[in-house]
Amino acid sequence: MLATAKPSGPKNPWLAYAALYRDPLGYLTRAARKHGDVVRLKIGRKSDFLLNHPDLVRAALLDQENLRRAVNRPLRRLLGMGLLTCRSERHKQQRALLQPMFARERIVALGDVMVDQTTRWANRWRDGATVDMAEEMMELAMSITAKALFNVDLSSKSAELRNTLATLLEATRFKNVVVTSKQFEKLSLPFHRRFARAAEKLDTEIHAMIGERRNGACDQPDLLSTMLRLQKQSRRGITDEKIRDQILTFFTVGHETTATGLMWTWYLLSENPGVAKKLYSEVDHVLGDRLPSGRDCDRLQYTRMVFAESMRLYPPIWLMTRRAVRDMKINDLVIRNGSYVHLSPFVMHRDPRYFPDPERFDPERWTPEAAASRPKFSYFPFGGGPLQCIGEGFAWTQGILVISTLAREWQMRVLSGHRIVLDPHITLRSRYGMPMILKRRK
Ligand code: HEM
Q1: What's the pLDDT tens digit per position in 364-375?
Q2: C-alpha 34 to ligand 1 mean position (Å)
Q3: What is the best residue among 349, 389, 398, 428 to mutate for testing ligand 1's pocket, by most ligand atoms within 8 Å of CB?
């Protein structure tokens, strides 16, 4: 029975918001354990909520009528009218246009691009070298996204582009919302000037990419040529600016999320040699001497379970927020117009009701029987409902293929004594990176 009629919450909400700002993951976890399925954060006459029950999460994610995705201002500014940041009707139209690009058979076919980019990437690695796996996975995921979705080769530019994007994403950080607010923006601090310079640089790159494709052959059925074709056909005029927004959305969201998921996977494999051994054994058995392809994903079952368990403990998107656009109810819970509703995969995925001994990394939780025994929305790394991740299939395929391609040849060990501190950016990063020692397996 869900107790939603009279939710409780911290007595002093201002202190609560200060704690949330300082340590969002710790604070949300403690609040959920103390106050249960609904945590109420009351400020003045308005209440915001954190929902911690799969049925409540489902209700919130499925309700696009009363709840809208809340995106912070800098991210909205950066991504303009792309799929992540546009609203309602426009969202429905864009989603319908783009969905066919993510059909299963298309993604399976992109497997070869993913494997090829990964092999080329790992060719730079040397036995015994130390690399920052956070950066390695970011740049690799960036090259894969660019090649698979836009047929653009970024291998020579990925570090530079990564730096530009890092500057832009810094502004969207939870802790920077104050300096990026409208009032502060007028002051034009060095921070804002850095942001503007980086935005201009990135825009130039993207517009050059659009121009080159428009002037060149357009026979690739990728996201960029599809958008250009739609632009030609459209009577309502899809501007280059809108294409730019879409490219940047897919480029940013597509690489950052998968890269953090992969980084935590290598970390967890390093900490759990028994699991790593089982993974190597599956990879060797299924692939033998050859490289994987998209068609192997169904057979790499344990690899899939490892990636799933890694995203349970470290969900790349650790928080989703919705804003009520009218007074509404979920069960008996009254939510007023303008209130925020927070959903945290990080908190839910560590709830012992659904994941006993939650801190333990145990891929066996993802056998088909074990997964089917849990309520659906106890695990939601890709969200759900009409705003669910459009790239979910792409991300699973990429995750499984990158892990299996690299695990065929390499073993990674976290540098001993390295301090792991979680850094809840838009994605869940590791504050001091992830230095790892590479060792050849074969
Ligand atoms: C492990 C990797 C990934 C994770 C964990 C992830 C997670 C998510 C989540 C949780 C959302 C929904 C946010 C909300 O409800 O507010 C989302 C949306 C989205 N994701 Fe992903 N994502 C991943 C990979 C990708 C990839 C590879 C792409 C592109 C190829 C992508 C593109 C998008 C887009 C465009 C949206 C907005 C969808 C819409 O509103 O219709 N994501 N993602």
Answers
A1: 999 999 999 999
A2: 30
A3: 389
